[in-house]
Amino acid sequence: MTNDIEKVRQLTSKNEGCISDAEGELLYKLAKDMPDGQVIVEIGRGKGKSTVWLAKGSEAGNKVCVYSIASHKEGADHIKADRENTNTEFIAKRAGVQGIVNSSYTDSEEAPRRWKEKVGLLCINTSREYEDVKKVFLDWERRLSPNARVVVHSCDQPGPARVIKEYLGNLGDFTFEQSVGATTVVAVDKCGHHWIIDSNEIGICKYCGRTRNFKRMGREATGTPNKRRQVGRKKK
After folding, report:
1. 231 burial type by CB count under 10 A (0-12 exposed, 13-18 middle, 19+ buried)
2. Nearest-5° Cα angle at 156, 33 to 42
3. For the whole model, what pTM was predicted?
4. Helix (H, G, I), strand (E, B) or coil at 61
5. Were both Cys, which of 68, 170, 179, 215 would link to 103 (CB 3.0–4.6 Å)?
6. Which residues are 205's β-sheet partners?
7. Higher-pLDDT residue of 78, 220
8. Rounded to whole angstroms, how far apart are CA atoms 14 and 150?
């Protein structure tokens, strides 16, 4: 596998992108380990670099589809780059993985609502703003498979770091797996929680000991369009 990774490293060396080779190798390994019947969804698209790492990893594994979805936050510079044939489609073709990468979907609320396939790996490479990163979590959480992983880039910045802290804390359903550089990987919590809730609405799972602040969850749910989903998690 070392030789394969070195080839991808050389292939992506001319591509723009904020991820390091070590972070790219992490994406490669995660994509390679993806089970058949699931897909990879990447929100944000780091101008093709991260997409190639994911697609090459998938190619070395079960050849699952990589859905590369441009964030709606990408502006005029990205559009100009597309016109100059440096977009994801062009890069995927040059890397020989155009059969694995699907970039036809747009970043909108409708995409996750209508999504049918189970997402085994969700990669978030949007802006570094807290609200943007959290919105991707909220939009796609229900589409994740039971053994899914979520990759969040730029976790050395306050916004992504705060989201990770919340989802690993008493408001979330994820557990920490690993970090490489500024990239963090979390996994869906596999515990079938049984909550014992006290008078302050703080719940403690009798199986794993995880705590959850249901009062805060309810308060946050009333101020978000995802109210039904978040409140529903209280009944777990």
Report:
1. middle
2. 40
3. 0.81
4. coil
5. 68
6. 195
7. 220
8. 26
For 87, phi then psi, to 5°, come to -80, 180
Instruction: For residue 53, give Cα distances in angstroms to 106, 151, 166, 224.
Output: 21, 13, 28, 34
Token code pair at residue 226: 């995802």
Q: How far apart are CA 8 and CA 10, in angstroms?
A: 5
The one-letter amino acid code at 194 reads H
Work out the number of other CB atoms within 10 angstroms of the CB of residue 223: 8
SS3 105: coil
* pLDDT band at residue 78 under the 50/70/90 scheme: very low
Cβ atoms within 10 Å, residue 214? 19
Give how far Cα 204 sits from Cα of 14, 175, 176, 232, Å. 50, 16, 19, 17
* DSSP at 1: -
Domains and CATH numbers, the chain: 2-190 (3.40.50.150), 191-236 (no CATH)
In this predicted model, what pLDDT tens digit does every residue of 95-118 receive, in sequence order?
788 789 998 887 777 889 999 999
Q: Which two tokens stand for residue 135?
A: 């919105």
Structure tokens at 26: 């992490």
Predicted confidence at residue 12, as pLDDT, reads: 85
